[in-house]
Give the backbone structure.
Amino acid sequence: MGAVTISDVRKSFGTIEVLHGISVDIAEGEFAVLVGPSGCGKSTLLRMIAGLEDISSGEISIGDRVVNQLAPKDRDIAMVFQSYALYPHMTVAENMGFSLKLAGVPKPERRKRVEEAAAILGLTDYLDRQPRQLSGGQRQRVAMGRAIVRKPAVFLFDEPLSNLDAKLRVQMRSEIKQNHQRLKTTTVYVTHDQIEAMTMADRIVVMNAGRIEQIGSPLELYDTPANLFVAGFIGSPAMNLLTGVLEADAFVADGGTRIALGSAGARGAAGRKAVLGIRSEHFALAPEGGGLQARILTIEPTGSETQVVLTLAGRDIVAGFRERIAARPGDLLSIQPQAESFHLFDAETGARL
Amino acid sequence: MNKARRNPLNIAAAHAILLTYTAIALFPVFVILINSFKTRKAIFREPLTLPNEESFSLIGYQTVMQQGDFFLYFQNSMIVTVTSLFFILLFGAMAAFALSEYRFRGNTLMGLYLALGIMIPIRIGTVAILEMMVASGLVNTLWALILVYTASGLPLAVFILSEFMRQVSDDLKNAGRIDGLSEYTIFFRLVVPLVRPAMATVAVFNMIPIWNDLWFPLILASSEATKTLTLGSQVFIGQFVTDWNAVLSALSMAILPVMVLYVIFSRQLIRGITSGAVK
């Protein structure tokens, strides 16, 4: 009943098309995250699901109803906004119960549902307060409470954590996730933060410039990015990308550095211009003088891992090591990239090889 | 707190300036008030002294109460002012909401057209307005005044309110839409409470000129039944003899209701209720 189907949806503002045919199926109970850089159309898509923007062409259904022509209130959705959008002149309880009041739900039932939601969110002691007397995290919880009491088919979140400080964001992230596991309501969550997407999503939809780049589970996107955009966008630190030419058993970077490709070989693309992607954790320390020689620019110890920024084949790359690094900036470090974890992309189309 | 504010010398200087200004602004009111309680002779002999046992007299107030239907004038002024303000705020806020909230063809043009009304004084059109009122049979009714004041107050109201309404968070309105509010309830229950300080400003701006206006009551509604307070006070000002006691008493009493209205609106001016709505 809570599945969302988006088929070939387009959106134009005047003559400018901002969404170029988006198709996604979000299953019942799924936590789907729309992620992409700002201006990629993810918020517009969410607002179209909510009914706050017209659909220029295509179809959106929630459950088995096509909702293109339905008003937001008839779509059986609830939305949490980045700015919380609490009604300033109402108490927390009134804020949460307002939509039920409008829907004509009798008062005892209303109070019961508000109290349930407040208990889930830890807001029971704050029900009589006004929004201005609450902290940012509490306001965010009220906004979620307002969504929860309606028991909608779909939750929509529009960058709900952007206004919170870093520590609170991590805490709210897991609270949202826990609430989802408890309520099992289909959720569409928009963010520009790929860490938020990775940690929360059942499935991530990566968008760029009005198109979908890839849809998949967080680890699918991380382990097999479909193209250069996804490879560069997902993961922190970002994937190291080197441009060069493929030979039968090696990748020759632009500076002439040869990197052996191992058993996978050139994947039938020998002679083509390509981009080699290596994640920071896929470097090993090589014995002195072996492997590739890279000059150390900076060393950033985080305790569990040490991140080293190196110059390799004329590019700055980031490598992370579990070992303690004794070398100092300016020294040469021998490193061995792990060929079995290489990502290869066509240099022209950006598609994965 | 910055340092300049804590300097006692600065505080004293600021207060001195403000007190001087207050004294200057209130001086005419003060003179009117004290003289309204004096005999005619005392008004002319010593206009700046307070009324004492010898010069104290309520003759002005007695004249005002006896002559003419002063309470009717009072009531007329009140009806005209309050009704005009109500319409200015209602229609002004609605037009401002439409201009700031909806994208439609000619939106900017409409805004500019309305802004034009701020620059052109309505009195230029007095003759045409009189002709229209005669044709529609509204001469010597309070409605003539209400319509004219509403029309003249709207441009500024729309201009100010639409600026304020643009600042009301879109998310808040959208949250209302998702919660099931109609556009009208969004306007009345979300937007209007949030722009209340701006509406109070508009009300104060419009109230005083309407209350004090002599021009339109004289031209459009000079019959005995529709006289406003300012027009009614004119009976005491003659070409040869002016009953100063009565004029000053009438003016003193005319100040009261505007002051009450001002106090009501200015309370709204200060109250900032938007905090906590959106971060």
Q: What stands out?
A: Chain A has two domains: 4-233, 240-346. The radius of gyration of chain A is 24 Å. The helical segments of chain A are 42-50, 92-102, 107-121, 136-148, 166-183, 194-200, 218-223, 228-233. Residues 129 and 142 of chain A are 11 Å apart (CA to CA).
